[in-house]
Write a structure and sequence with these properties.
The protein is an all-alpha fold and 411 residues long. It folds into two domains: 211 residues, no CATH class; 181 residues, hpI Integrase, Chain A. The chain is built from 16 helices and three strands. A three-stranded antiparallel beta sheet has the order 1-2-3, with no helix packed on it. The radius of gyration is 24 Å and the shape is globular.
Length: 411
Amino acid sequence: MHENVKFIDLIKSAKYHMEAQGFTDVSTFQYLRTWRSAYNYALSQGVEYFSAELAEAYMRDKYNLSIGENSVDESSLSPYTVKNIRALRALVDFSLHGFIAKETRGEKILWPAGFSEICIMFLADYEKRGYSPLTVRKHELHLCRFVSFLKSRDVERPEDIAVDHVYDYFKTICYLSKSALANIRGTLVHALRFFHKHGICGKDLSGLVPKVSYYAQSKLSKIWSEEEIFQILNSVDRANGTGKRDYAIMAIAANLGLRSGDIVKLSISNFDWKNGIINIVQGKTGEPLSLPLSEQVGKAVIDYWQNGRPNTVADELFVQHTLPFMGLSSPMTYHIFNKYFLSSGIMIPPGKKHGLHSLRHSLASRLLEKDTPVNIVGDILGHVNSETAKQYIRVDICKLRECGLEVPEIG
C-alpha cells in the first residue's frame, strides 16, 4: 500500500489518516513522537524508507525489545513502552494495509459494507457463548486488521477470500511474537469456519491457516519456592504508604493467586470481613469468584487502608501515590514485583520471565505439592473450565517422579 513511500512522507500520510479516522489529539501526538524518533534513527542508519525490519532494529537498539512482543497481556511492559510498540505496529500496518486500527477499548469499529453483517454475527456468537467483553474485543481487533488487509488487496466481500490472501496476510505480520500470532490464528480459524458454516464462503479455509508452533505451557517455568516468596515479601519496607500498598498487592497474588488485572480493580467493598472472604467478578472470564482471606492478606489490606492509602476519591483500593492518586494500571504490578524481586537478592537464570503473575503459578504448584485435587486448584484460580488447571501438573516435578514406573531387570 505505502511500501515504496519515503519515511517522512509515510508519517505525514499516517497522521492524516489518524485524523480522518477520528483518533484523539493525544493518541496522534503519542504516535507521532515515536515515529519521529524512529525516523531520526533511520537517518542515522542512512535508511530512507520505512519497513518492519527497520522498526524492529530501532526497538532492539533503543529498548532491547522487539515490536513483536506480545501485547494481549502486556504485564511485562511499562505503559510507555507499550505505547511505543503500539505506534510502530500501527505504522507497519499502515505501510502494508493503508489502515490503522483503533485499539481503545469500547471504540466502535466501522466494518466495510461487504463484511459488516457477517463480522457482527461472528462477534455476537462469541458474546452468546459467554466470553468476556475483553476477549471479544481482542477477537474484534484481530478480525478488523485482517479485513483491513483484505480491503488493501481489493477484496470487497468474504466470499472473495482466497487461501493466497490468508498466506500473504501472515507474511505481513510475521514480525509478531509467536504468542501473538497464535492468538491471531485462533481468531481467523474460527472466523473462516464461521463464514463457511453460514454459507458466505463456498470453501472452508480454516484448515489452511498457517500453523504456529507455540505452547502457552512454556511460561510455567515462573515458579518461586515458599522461601523465595518470603524473601521477596520480606524485602518490602512497610514503614511507608507505598511499601504497605506493594506488600498487600504481592500478598494477595501469592496467597490467593488473583490475576494482576483483578487485583488493581479491587475495592474495599470486595472484602467480606465478617465471613473472612473476598468476592470478585473476574475480568478475564466475567465469572464470580469467592476465596477465603488469610491472616496475612487481611492484616496487609487493613494496614494499607488505615495507615498507608492517600486520601482520594478513587474507588480502587490500590492507588498511585502521586497526584491525583488514581487507580493503578495492570502493567504497573510487573514493576512493583520486580522492584522487590531485584532487591531481595534472589538469582535466576538469564532470560527467565518473572512478574506478579508468576506468584499465581507458584500458588498452583504449592497446592499440587500438598495433594490438592486438580479440580480444586482450578476453582481456586478461577478457571471456567477445570481442565485448564491440568496444565499445572507439568510443573509439579516431585509428584511426576512418584508416578514413574520401575523398569524390571532383564534376565
